[in-house]
Structure formats: C-alpha cells, structure tokens
Amino acid sequence: MKERLRGFRAVYSFTFKQLSGTKSFKIITVLIALLIAGGLIVGSVVGAGRGKDHGNGTGANGETTEVSQVENVLVMDESGLSPIDFSAYLKGNKVFENIQFKDFEGTDFSEAIKDSGVTQKTVILQIVKQGTDYQLKGALPENSLLKEKDVKKLVSALSQAFQLVKLNKAGLTPEQITAAMQSVDYSYSNIGDKSNNVATVIVKMVAPMLFSFMLYMMLILYGQSVSKSVSGEKTSKLVETLLVSVRPDALIAGKVVAVAVQGVLQFIIWIAALFIGLYGGDMVAKMVHPGYTNPVIAVLNAVKNNIGESALSPAAVLLAVAFFFVGFLFYSVLAALAGSMVSKPEDAASTQSILQLPIVISWLLCYFVPLNGNETFIPVARYIPFTAPFCVPVDTLTGAVNLWESTLMLMVMIVFTLLLVALSSRIFKGLILYNGQKVNLKTIQGILKGKQ
C-alpha cells in the first residue's frame, strides 16, 4: 500500500497550494463569509426592531398596528347594559387608546349626526339587543374623512371589549373574566403520528432540500475541477515522466483529496460564518431589543428537542461533517474517473455524464421518494455509496439514525471510496497510451482484465 501511494503527499501539497493559494480563492471565501455573517446579524437586528415597533407596521399575526384615524365615537346604547366605559377596556391598546367616547341619548342616526361633538373623524356606534344576542353597528356621517376599513377595525376591537362588558355585568370577578377569555388551541393527529410537528416537517422537507442542493452545487463545481485536472495531466506530454516518480494511485488520490479538502474547508468556513451570524445576530438583537426571540433559533431548538436524542449533538455534528467529506470525496473520485477516460482535452465535456447522472438521479431518489410515503427506500439508500451522501449527514444531524449506525455507514462509504480510487488509477494508467484515440467500453474492459 505504501508503494502504491508513493508521491501522494507531493501531489496533494502541490494541487492544494495551486487551488487555494490564489488571491481569488481567498477573496471569495472571506467575502462570502463576511456577507453571510454580516447579513444575518443585520437581519436579526432589523427584524427585532420591526417586531418591537408597536406604533406603526405590523403585529405578530400580520395585522396592522397603525394608530386609528378615528378621533371620537358617539355611542347610542340600546343594550340595557349602560353605562359602558369603552375607554377603560381599550386602555393600553396603542391603536385605539386616544379615541374619545361620548354617550348619546337617542336611537335615531339622523339626530345623532347633528350632535355638536360629531366631526369628520367621528364614528357613530349603535348597540342593540336582538333576542339573546347583541349587535354593534358602526356608521359614518356625511363628508367623513374616515374610510370603511377604519370603522371595521374599530367595531372589531369594540366587539371584543363588549365581551368583557357582558362578563363584568354578569358579576364575574376579574380572575374569572380572565379565565373565561383565555383562547383555546386545538389540533388533530393520530396517536404516535408526528406528521403535523413543525420540526418533523422541516426535517422531512426543508433540511434535505437545502442540503441536497448545496451538495449538488459543490459536486458540480468542484467535480469539474477534479475532472479537468486529471484529464489535463493525462493529456500532458510530461505524464510519462511524472509517472516515473509518482504512482497512478497517488496521482489520482492526491489530486482528488486536495480538491475535496479545499471544497469542504470552504464549506466549513461558510457554515461557521452562518452560525456566527445567526447566534451573534441574536445576541446583538437581544441587547438592542430585550425579549426578542429569533424564529430560526426557535426552530433549531424545536428540532433538537423533538426529534432524536442525538440531534445536533457534538458527536452527531462531527460524524455528519466526516460523512459529508467522504461522500464528497467519493464523487470527486468519480469525477477523476471521468477525467481518466479523456483521450483528448476537447473530449472532457463528453465524459461529464459519468459524474452528473449519478448526482442528479441520487438527489431525486433521496428527496422525492420519501415524500411519496415510501419508508423502505431510505434505510437501503443509506448504505448505497451514490445515495448515502445525500441522506446520511442530514439523518445524523437530526438524530434519525443512531451514532453507531452512522459510524457503520461511514465505514462502508470509506471502503467504496478506496475501491473507486483503485479503479480510477488503474484506468488512468491503462489509458496513458491512448492519447488522441477513441476510448470505448471494450477498451475499458480490456484494461480492467489486464489485457491492455
């Protein structure tokens, strides 16, 4: 094994320095990390500020909290519950607390609009009893500056206050009124069914989608770099001289590992920037706006607390990163295999299907098959080297698989990666003399059997 990997360190060091030592790589890596961290910090502070703004904007449920344009209300109370002090019930409500209320003795709207207190920003409120029910009616005088939506918002708020009025008139204590007005939430699910759990929905849909897309983009970008690097060495006139001091296995492994380390290192820096921005932004936002709760962190805590004992634990994170690296390495070796089959530089694009088809098919299977309710596919896909990189890291992070199961899957992935390295190096060595010639399956088969 030591002889087969002769020259690995030299190839790895040269390739890694060549790829990551450039100014463009350093600038892009640092710039994107700063944009991620800075954007999240600014977003958290701005979001917290909007959430705390009760004067104007929107409330927690998306309802407008703009101060009402209504200045006064003329109340015609025919409910029999007089006197009603709406001002006391709206106290503390920044939308309506500045409205002045005045009682009107009478039941005729045409008489009410003649009252001296009526202005262009007055609402006439009539409260009537119809059987056992009560009805609140709002009306605007002619030439009013108010709009229909102003009346609707006011009457809606007053109808809620009127519920308290009725309970108070019934002789209930403040504690009893508070208990009676408590809202009741309801949900429906089968026993043992967690399909309605927000954390479960995120794990089943959002997390695999984001991770798969990220892995797909990295494999496409860095996979092409591996393929071009290997094919460039193969079509170089110095390749015969190079192979005197470096074994094919070391050449393939050195180039692939260098690109994989570069890609994963860049990925780790950006993920670290994401968490720094997320938790740093939450810290800054709480300093500026005490009591603020970051919704993203709340969701992460929900995932951690509701699915799997090992979810987001340090051991799970380390295993997930290790599996991500090995899976990325496996597909990088596959890209090297594609590059090994290139006989001319202009043929490099035609071999990319060897890399792209398994990536696309594996991603589609790992994402869409479970969504269709197939629960038997993923347990099998976790041990298949093509599909495992798309499902095992997420399953490990979320606790869907135990740590020992994830370790076993990692060992299987390493074995397949080493076998693929051996296969790629053998094909690379066997096709050295085929520069400029067409390579077909029969040629590949002969190389693997040792006839070429």
TrEMBL record:
Enumerate the GO terms in the molecular function aspect. ABC-type transporter activity
Task: Tell me where it mainly resides.
Answer: membrane
Is Membrane among this UniProt entry's keywords?
Answer: yes
Q: Does the keyword Membrane apply?
A: yes
How does it sit in the bilayer? Multi-pass membrane protein
An example GO CC term for this entry is: membrane
As for subcellular location, the record says: Membrane
Segments traversing the membrane: 27-48, 198-222, 256-279, 315-342, 354-371, 408-428
Q: Which UniProt keywords apply?
A: Membrane, Transmembrane, Transmembrane helix
Q: Which residues form the ABC-2 type transporter transmembrane domain?
A: 23-422
The protein here is known as Sodium ABC transporter permease
Q: What is the lineage of its organism?
A: Bacteria, Bacillati, Bacillota, Clostridia, Lachnospirales
